[in-house]
Design goal:
Two copies of one chain form a homodimer. The first copy, chain A, has about 210 residues and is mainly alpha-helical. The first copy, chain A, contains six helices and no strands. In chain A, α2 packs antiparallel against α5 and α4 packs antiparallel against α5. Chains A, B: Pfam families: FTCD_C (PF04961).
């Protein structure tokens, strides 16, 4: 069953049970989808208002981009589960089987790849969140700020899920490359989040 | 329709559309539920393992408490929508109607109350997250850390949603009381989060 067709209750129950999937990776993708959805809502509440006329075009772009992002995120959530299941299968291969090492390494790389895509997608959602925080309808500004918290959380979750897989990967060039890319993404996302934090304070939402 | 019976896709679509509900408040409650569910998963993966025998009892408490918390959070999500709808109705009362002022004030207070409950519930989830981060199965530690990010995000979202309603409330004693309580909660939650951040770094999950 595709995750998007599960009810909220079913999904929470599935996460909670004694099985590592769906776990943080899939949850992170859902959380990023919620951020994208909030951005769409803010854009929808901004479009057509005389006061925000000059931001009409950029809000149309928010709508379109976030819709595509949500589709990719739903796909990431489903793939995260499949990738993790492959790791579990590889771990079950008997230790004296000569194929074990390679299959496990391959599965772990895939299991690192999927949350890495989530990390990249979270950056995209955070970028569009800056737009809704800056130019969105002020009546919905708390929703835009909420999207910022969710984009940041989704990125951090993605990061933890990449890192836990990297810990078991032997290919040190692969590990180094991913760590560096993650560091760069982190700097970028935290930079945008800090801009938004200034808006949060300037609008009197910091206590 | 109760939120918990919506599919993930339906919920995201509902958030995204041109209507302020469901908005940040309901999304925040769902996000806190996801954090609670991840804590349950970590507890489930810890219970019954010889290595973690000494934490069996506390993990049983995590399971029980987080299950109850999820029920309260689902209720908060539904009530957030109803409270917001009441505010929208009160805003529609003609300005020359003498009842308008009181009805609007009452609706706004309720709309601040519900996310305030979410803020309190996020503190509870964060408390239990510290337990799963400290004593949970190390193989699922990225999931416990993910729960920490979600608890923090849920609290911030709750805070923004309380504050946006406080801005329109005339009763200054009410506003002051809520702001102070929120500040206290914030200090407490950030304190626990900072403890968890040390665990994140100590376990090599910081880059």
């Amino acid at each position: 069953m595709e995750l998007k067709n599960m009810t909220l209750k079913e999904f929470c129950d599935k996460v909670a049970e004694k099985s590592p999937v769906p776990g943080g990776g899939a949850v992170g993708a859902i959380v990023a989808s919620l951020a994208a959805s909030l951005n769409q809502m803010v854009a929808n509440l901004t479009i057509g208002k005389k006061k925000y006329e000059e931001y009409e075009e950029i809000m149309e772009e928010v709508l379109e981009n976030m819709e595509l992002s949500r589709r990719r995120l739903q796909d990431i959530a489903d793939r995260d589960i499949r990738a993790f299941n492959k790791v579990m299968e590889a771990f079950k291969i008997p230790k004296d089987n000569p194929e074990r090492k390679e299959k496990l390494e391959h599965a772990l790389k895939e299991a690192a790849d999927v949350p890495f895509e989530l990390a990249r997608e979270s950056r995209n959602v955070m970028k569009y969140t800056e737009i809704t925080c800056k130019w969105g309808n002020k009546n919905a500004i708390s929703d835009a700020f909420s999207a910022a918290e969710l984009s940041l959380a989704a990125f951090k979750i993605a990061m933890y899920n990449v890192l836990i897989n990297l810990k078991s990967i032997k290919d040190s060039a692969f590990v180094k490359h991913y760590e560096e890319e993650l560091k760069e993404l982190k700097g970028e996302i935290e930079g945008i989040y800090n801009n938004i934090k200034e808006l949060i304070a300037a609008n009197g939402f910091e206590i």
